[in-house]
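Revision sheet: structure tokens.
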Amino acid sequence: MGNINMSYKLRKQCSQLRLNSCTLFIMNVPVKFIDKNFSFMFEMLITDSKMVAIGLYREKVKGTSKYVFIKPQPDTKLSAKDKVFVLSYKQPKNGKDLSL
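Predicted:
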């Protein structure tokens, strides 16, 4: 999973996610992660929902255009306008309805 500093437990969970047979999805950032850091959402999606967050789709932020942000820094703050790209073996619910 790249250079991200993950605990042994998290690396083990990632290896069990069947990523070789997964699909790329985009969903709203779950409400419970708004104003939280990307690293917090990353870990919680793996442990609770068996999904790996790999990037963000961001709308206008401080005068910029829409853009895709792959492998955000762990301290990247999430907003209600963000969407998250996830790898998963099943289609996720919309982030607003995602029960974790």
